[in-house]
Amino acid sequence: MIRFALRRLISLTLSLIVASIVIFAVIEIIPGDPAAFMLGVNARPDTVAALREELGLTASAPARYLAWVTGMLTGDFGTSYTYKTPVAGMIADRIWVSFPLAIYALILSTLIAFPAGIYAAARRGRLGDVSVMAATQLGVAVPNFWFAMIIVSIFSLKLGWFNAIGFPGWDAGFWPAIKALTLPAIALALPQAAILARVMRSSLLDMLNEDFMRTARAKGLSRRQALWRHAVRNAMIPVLTILGLQFAFLLAGGIIIEQVFYLPGLGRLIFQSIQARDLIVVESVVMLLVFTVIVVNFAVDIAYAAVDPRLRGRR
Amino acid sequence: MSLLTIRDLQLSIHGTPILRDVDLTVEAGKITAITGESGSGKSLTALTVMGLLPTGSETAGTVALDKVDVLKASEPELCAMRGNDMAMVFQEPMTALNPVQCIGDQVAEAILIHTKTTRAKARSRAAAMLERVGLPNDRFPLSRYPHELSGGQRQRVVIAMAIALRPKLLIADEPTTALDVTTQAKILTLLKELVSEFDMGLLMITHDLAVVADFADEIVVMQKGDVVEAGPTGEVLQNMQHPYTRSLFAASGHQVDLPDAMGAEPLLRVTNVMRDYPVPRKSLFSPPGVFRAVDDVSFDLGVGERVGLVGESGCGKSTLTKAILGLDPIQGGSITMGGAPVYTGKAPNRAVRRRMQVVFQDPYGSFNPRHRVDRLISEPFHLLDTPPLGEARQHAIATALEDVGLAADDALKYIHEFSGGQRQRIAIARALITEPDLIVFDEAVSALDVSVRAQVLDLLAELCRKRPFSYLFISHDLSVVRSVTDRVLVMKSGQIVEQGDTETVFTSPQHPYTQTLLAAAPVLPDLT
Fold first, then answer.
1. Candidate from B83, B96, B280 with C-beta closest to A212
2. Cα–Cα distances in Å, from A95 out to A169, A266, A271, B33?
């Protein structure tokens, strides 16, 4: 198990190196040079030259790549051109919104999806199953921003339980911050929960037809006991896959929800930086997201092996 | 009073009658075998006793286990009985165990469900049970997972699970069908020992009459949901009353009338063949290891000769077959057909490849369900440089279908419209359509019922008479190999340990391994 984790760790490192090269190369191959691109078409040549100097674009590409990577490793992400502040600080502020939001949403979606999926599978074809499936159908179909607006109008505007927009920051205390993230987390979580519940249900139904389920029943387990003790763990593999993909989406794809709730998250940061052509910020945030996705995949791989002993020896 | 008494059992599923007036009894300390072809209701009778019938089932009659009528018991009562009073062993050991739970926990669970005991005590009882079924703890600790065990070992775990609480009745549904002959013999011996040791009744389901004859005290023959004949094994076999029993018996020992082999001009020549598989490295920096699946194998197969290949699973039969078909490269030696290599460069040699075809075991999995039969059986035409088109193609398809005893009209049907035996005929038609010189039959009749198998084997003999061709017949079923081959190769751990004239090898085996194989194979009693 530990050897398996080490092997996955090596491949994780390799993926990170490849990803950083690709991101660097993409920024590199943007027509013209980054300085000219960032300043737009009407920039004066001497401004461009000054920016080139400031960005260190006069050095060779490998040297700049190395400087970028070593900078990131020491926590120096460069300085934003538009805001004139260190990128590291900007990301740090935003990450304390996006990360908790993504985890909050993931926990909610798991808490909704697992019971719903298991409930539906256990009552296959009966009313409970049909209603859960109808609800998930709706959850998948409804766009999350529209759903966000609906819950804002009910819980904030009508009932006044939550603030409609904004984030007080963690300095305001843990519970106020969590409270501010609750509506966005629900809006993010519900469509994901709908997908996850469907995967959980179908994966469980596959398991219910397996021979070992009949063996479990022949031992004297009731239908429900057999489901919980033998089917659920076997059904986890596809569910974990989806869960890993969803976390990456929740982190980066929360942008629409961040806009709706006016939250200062990573999604908005990257959106604003692209509009401002602040490539330094874009580059760093993208690298950070890639890093997160790769680490999440690593965690999912480890979880696979924890769930399924057959996967431990391989790869 | 018998341990298990089934009287007038009727079963219908979603209104379709499945069982009609089934009567049978199982005595404590005795073995009752149910035999019959697939679809005769054997397994459903067993599942009725366990109360594990599919939804939509309706039953009538009585199934009394020690005075308790199972049919009238409630679900919680049944749960309390299953695993405690009655237990079951299933056919497919590879999938019968939960793959993500260690064997110790799975056996201990059976104990924990029914007895108030601690986890530690249940585990030590599980260890004792595993030891009893031949899985000693020093070699098979409780922490082993099913995927780390062979099929025979897994079946032992399933048996340990079933007998953990010493049930009064054990039901075994084709417990050895998926196993090798030597493993089968060991599992049957184990079951027999357990029956007398625990004074347990065993209801055993098997399609293999040779197993029944050796093993059971009582025999029940079923056909289409009816019991057609029942009684003590010796009496029933000596004095078969029902025509179905007689035909079942005749089909089991079916002898094929094979035309004489032709001259021994070599067609396929296998010389010192080696086939290695890479295995995972031991550590990060050690060189990748290799597993030699086929080790220095040499034999010739003459024009018109029929050769059998026998051996246990994992001995390298399938690997060798793939190499012969040019599907895999080999790491040493040569395989030639008519002098030309079967594998050149990085691909099969087309010129040779079109002269051989293959028929696989599984008549259900080896066809694309979305293609019509004409497309399925004309697929080998892609090997030809100028495949027949239009009329000629239709004619070839019709001829191939008629050759295997089907109608030309069947070309327009889909595969799900055919039974297992018909599908295997279609597989043979697909192999025949390019008129190859060599056909490889890879366990081609193993999944078929005895009577269907007998028909397919007769078809082989008939095809040989019509147009002589050579075949390599791979099977674990020694009696079948004996009846349809001229020469036989015995394979063990990647090597051919004995080869020779089929009759000679079977009557006076020289190699100890061949002797073990033949001794382990159950044989039909000679009733004449």
1. B96
2. 12, 6, 14, 69
- Identity of the amino acid at B361: Q
- Say how many C-beta atoms besides its own lie within 10 A of residue B495's C-beta: 16
- pLDDT value at residue A315: 40
Residue B263: its pLDDT value, please? 65
Note the pTM of the prediction, 2 decimals.
0.81
pLDDT in tens, B498-527: 999 999 999 999 999 999 988 888 888 776
| Integer Cα distance of B209 and B253 in angstroms | 9
Q: Return the pLDDT at A34.
A: 66
Q: Do A210 and B95 touch (CB under 8 A)?
A: yes
Q: Quick check: B98 and A230 CB within 8 A?
A: yes
The pLDDT, as a whole number, for residue B491 is 92
Q: Do residue A233 and residue B101 have CB atoms under 8 angstroms apart?
A: yes
Reported confidence tier of residue A32, pLDDT bands at 50, 70, 90: low
Domain that holds residue A156: 90-311
| Nearest-by-CA chain B residue for A231 | B98
* CB pairs A-B closer than 8 Å: 76
Residue A210 in tokens: 């397996």
Q: Closest residue of B to A223, CA-based?
A: B79
Which stretches of chain B score pLDDT less than 50?
A: none
Query: Which residue from B82, B101, B114 is facing A218, i.e. has the nearest CB?
Result: B82
Residue A53 lies in a domain: no
Subunit contact A219:B100, Cβ cutoff 8 A: no
Residue A113 maps to a domain: yes
Nearest one of B325, B357, B318 to B341, comparing CA atoms: B325
Cα(A52)–Cα(A59) distance, rounded to whole angstroms?
10
Hey, are the CB atoms on B52 and A218 less than 8 Å from each other? Answer: yes
Cα B342 to Cα B334: distance, rounded to the nearest angstrom: 9
Q: In A, which residues are within 8 Å of B280 by CB distance?
A: 313-314
Of chain A residues 161-220, which have a CB less than 8 A from chain B?
Answer: 210-212, 214-220
Q: Give the integer Cα–Cα distance in Å for B255 and B170.
A: 35
> Could you tell me if A16 lies within 8 Å of chain B, comparing CB atoms?
no
Number of domains in chain A: 1
Q: B-side interface with A, Cβ within 8 Å?
A: 50, 52, 75-76, 79-84, 87-88, 90, 92, 95-102, 109-110, 113-114, 145, 147, 158, 161-162, 280, 284
Instruction: Determine how many CB atoms are found less than 10 A away from the CB of residue B394.
Output: 15
Residues of chain A contacting residue B162, judged by C-beta atoms under 8 Å apart: 218
Q: Is residue A41 part of a domain?
A: no
What confidence tens digit (pLDDT) does each residue in B142-158 have? 988 998 888 888 999 99
| Per-residue pLDDT, A27 | 77
Find out whether A221 and A229 touch, Cβ atoms under 8 Å: yes
Backbone CA torsion sign across B242, B247, B252, B254: positive
Number of neighbours of residue A158 by Cβ within 10 angstroms: 9
Q: What is the per-residue pLDDT for A139?
A: 87
DSSP secondary structure code for residue B260 in this structure: P
- The token duo for B356 is 């051989």
Flag whether A197 is in a domain.
yes
Q: What is d(CA B428, CA B377) in angstroms, rounded to the nearest whole number? A: 9
Nearest to A219 among B82, B95, B99 (CB): B82
* Contact of B173 with B46, CB cutoff 8 Å: yes
- Residue in B95, B110, B145 closest to A219 by CB: B110
| CATH number (domain holding residue A139) | 1.10.3720.10
* pLDDT (0 to 100) of residue A195: 92
Residue whose C-alpha is closest to residue A221's, from B171, B79, B51, B384: B79
Total Cβ atoms within 10 A of residue A70: 10
Structure tokens at B475: 């099977």
| CA gap B469, B437 in Å, rounded | 5
